[in-house]
Design brief:
binds uridine-5'-diphosphate-xylopyranose, 2 domains, alpha/beta, Rossmann fold, about 45% helix
């Protein structure tokens, strides 16, 4: 079985590399010549644990290649995936589908023999059907079916999520396409991965509903955290007590500065538009985004409060800049909302991150960057843990305290127990840890 992966961004690159473990050949295509050249030189443009090993191994075995030649790749393929970006359209929150439709047209012009054209990008309901029409209109003789096969990859654990998923969702319309897709995923079927085989529209909606539900859990616990602060309760114990109920589950109940990343904020916006287009008010989705945005502001207020009500003239050491650990991705990271507010308030910000500094430098100006947490916090009035990297989970707190001028310890990911931090002479602020 031969695969073409159109779009070699995060999803395309990870999925292409993983598929190359169990199909004959995967060709990953991208329009960005430099991007492809870099990969072919062995320089991966994204950081994902284990990805370099997987790519190198399968490139060496000639099962995986990277090219800008869409035509040749599509001609050889039994299954063509579209994994191009669907960013929020500027200004209105709709997902921008121009890259998906452009790819569909180019694919249509190059189809040879029966091919399944599968969409992997997160797209509004109805996109697979629109893709089908575009392909048919562009090339009326093409023998093809379309499919929707959303991804559920978390950055930082994407390879494991791909190889051992909770489920595989496949939207199809014909038995032939269903057989192709089942054959493709056979190795996962053998390890008893549940397959949800359904219609195109349902598969598309499963993706949005899943992400929206996870985002809802986060905003829910963040709002509970605010209540905990007001009434002297501890959100971590509340989350534990809730999570032990198997109907609720313990995951995605970590209070913090709110969700970021390339998916949740964008997908929530797009979902709200899908509701609107169907004449339905998206009450929950709207509230989830409002709570998330308010949470960012609340974190800025927390930092001010920990510094006698005003950050003006204060030096703040920030640990962690990416939207979550184990990635260099800065998209919609909490740091992008919180740090500019601190700078605007007159604070001097010193920051560090294990993988995100290069990206951060492009987006966060007017702050200083350092390699390690202790240098970052040198002479600081406050230290703020913004992303829960493992590197910051076992800090030498006495050494940190010594390097600082002040004593404010602001733990926006609830990594530390307040007793251990206080013992060393810090003042402690967490999220949802009532007095
Ligand atoms: C997410 C989905 O999990 C994945 O299934 C989907 O396909 C893509 O979007 P990802 O964006 O990589 O994956 O990150 P995820 O681990 O889900 O975290 C998203 C954000 O939520 C991060 O900013 C994280 O810090 C935050 N989060 C997560 C919390 O604040 N609390 C939690 O309990 C969990």
């Amino acid at each position: 079985m031969n695969i073409a992966m159109i779009g070699t961004g995060y999803v395309g690159l990870v999925s292409g590399a993983c598929f190359s473990e169990f199909v004959d050949e995967v060709r990953c295509v991208d329009k960005d010549r430099k991007w492809i050249e870099d990969i072919n030189r062995g320089v991966l443009p994204i950081y994902e644990p284990g990805l370099d090993i997987l790519v190198n191994k399968n490139v060496e075995k000639k099962r995986l290649s990277f090219t800008t030649d869409l035509g040749a790749s599509v001609k050889e393929a039994d299954i063509v995936f579209i994994a191009v970006g669907t960013p929020s359209r500027r200004g209105d929150g709709y997902a921008d589908l121009s890259y998906v439709y452009e790819a569909a047209k180019e694919i249509a012009n190059n189809l040879e023999g029966y091919t399944v054209v599968v969409n992997k990008s997160t797209v509004p309901v109805g996109t697979a059907r629109a893709m089908k029409k575009i392909i048919k209109d562009t090339n009326p003789d093409a023998k093809f079916d379309v499919s929707s096969n959303p991804e559920f990859l978390r950055e930082g654990s994407a390879i494991n999520d791909f190889m051992r998923p909770d489920r595989v969702v496949i939207g199809v319309e014909s038995e032939r396409a269903k057989a192709f897709m089942k054959e493709l995923y056979r190795p996962l079927y053998l390890i008893e991965t549940p397959m949800v085989i359904t219609t195109l529209e349902t598969a598309e909606l499963i993706k949005y509903a899943s992400n929206a539900f996870l985002a809802t859990k986060i905003s829910f616990i963040n709002e509970i955290a605010n209540l905990c602060e007001a009434c002297g309760a501890d959100v971590q114990d509340v989350a534990k007590g809730m999570g032990l109920d198997r109907r609720i589950g313990p995951k995605f109940l970590h209070a913090g500065p709110g969700f970021g990343g390339s998916c949740f904020p964008k997908d929530m916006q797009a979902l709200i538009k899908i509701y609107q287009d169907n004449g339905i008010t998206a009450r929950i989705a709207e509230a989830v985004l409002q709570v998330n945005s308010a949470q960012r502001s609340r974190m800025v207020q927390k930092i001010n409060d920990a510094l006698d009500g005003n950050v003006h003239g204060k030096t703040i050491g920030i640990l962690g800049l990416t939207f979550k650990p184990e990635t260099n991705d800065m998209r919609e990271a909490a740091s992008l909302a919180i740090i500019p507010a601190l700078v605007e308030g007159g604070a001097k910000v010193r920051a560090t991150d294990p993988k995100g500094i290069d990206e951060a430098k492009k987006l966060l100006k007017g702050i200083e960057y350092f390699e390690d947490p202790y240098t970052t916090c040198k002479g600081a009035d406050a230290v703020v843990i913004l992303t829960e990297w493992n590197e910051y989970r076992a800090l030498d707190l006495a050494r940190l305290k010594k390097s600082m001028k002040g004593k404010a310890f602001i733990d926006l990911r609830n990594v530390y127990k307040f007793q251990e931090v206080k013992k060393l002479g810090f003042s402690y602020t967490g999220v949802g840890i009532g007095a």
